[in-house]
Amino acid sequence: MIGDKPTLALVGATGVVGLSLLSLLPTRDDIWGEIRPIASGRSVGRRMTILGQDVVVRELDDNAFEGVDVVVMAVPAEVAARWVPVAVAAGAVVIDSSGEFTGREDVPLVVPEINPDAARYHPQGIVASPSGPTLMMVGALWSLHSAWQLTSVVATTMQAVTDAGVAGALRLYDETMELAGNQGVGQSPGDVRRMLSDLGTSPFPAPVAFNLIPWVGDPAEAGATDSETHVRDELRSLMRVPHLPVAVTCVQVPVVRTHSVSVHATFATDVDRDDAVRVLTESSNSVVVLDDSAESLDDAWPTPVDVVGADPVFAGRVRRLDGFPKAIELFICADNLRKGSALNLLQIAELTVS
């Protein structure tokens, strides 16, 4: 702690989420003393400018958390598993986004717009932040649930390649460059794979350029991926409905940044479409509704290229279909590196010291 201001450490400071979090600091209240960037490998010793100060990236080691009040972990699960206990033992509160500690007893799962008080109760010294797909839809679902009581959710996520960090973005760029200019590519079986065969190892299980991959994450139960089971479990926890039926399919798409999701949400009673729009608009849920009921379709619904770099979650295509009087359909976009990760982490960190 410097003076009366707490020290914030950011592990993974040079990754895509870490850099996004640092870029958000000038837009937030000035509550932090020292901001300590921590990384490993080639990033150690790198100089960064943080809030106008020249700062050197520290190595992730046993001494990295000395004097730190709050640690944000923007790292993979295996790294979090190794270093979160070290940070807690050093006396810090840890905000983790890896999923490694989600669902554990006495580790609260927090979305500040839904359960801010939970961030202040952390008997294990750990607070979990949900996955990006959960964060982009939970605000809208919570508002609708509060009005009509959710009975089931069916969702298909369309996830940007920065899910896989810098490597994911670079892979999409490399594949696109390799395929660009070949007007016939993608029109015969196997041609895309053949053209990309010399590009080396990919973080994705199939070509991502000119393609969709209906698999994000590692194998889990009943043919699902762990990304899909994380969304299910996180929604159940945040909605406080332990057995809520949730069906999720996570799809990797050739978008650099900003996730999207198509949601079919069913409720205990009939739902009017205009009432749903009103609830989404008036609730304190970080959701911006683009209402496509007007005659003009200009800017009538969100797309990733239009909302990238923005903090809110954007919802459109809000509708009630014939034959589904108790269900609402909507299409949601949110920057996966901001509200889908970095912003929620930063908001939680602020709550822990408020």
From TrEMBL:
SMART domains associated with the record: Semialdhyde_dh (SM00859)
Keyword terms, alphabetized: Oxidoreductase
Domain of life: Bacteria
Pfam families attached to this UniProt entry: Semialdhyde_dh, Semialdhyde_dhC
Gene Ontology BP, a term: amino acid biosynthetic process
Species assigned in the record: Flexivirga aerilata
PANTHER family xrefs: ASPARTATE-SEMIALDEHYDE DEHYDROGENASE (PTHR46278:SF2), DEHYDROGENASE, PUTATIVE-RELATED (PTHR46278)
The UniProt record lists the keyword Oxidoreductase: yes
Protein name: Aspartate-semialdehyde dehydrogenase
Entry annotated with the keyword Chaperone: no
InterPro entries linked to this entry: NAD(P)-bd_dom_sf, Semialdehyde_DH_NAD-bd, Semialdhyde_DH_dimer_dom
Family in the record: Belongs to the aspartate-semialdehyde dehydrogenase family.
GO molecular function terms noted in the UniProt entry: aspartate-semialdehyde dehydrogenase activity; NAD binding; protein dimerization activity
The protein's Enzyme Commission number: 1.2.1.11
Semialdehyde dehydrogenase NAD-binding domain segment(s): 7-122
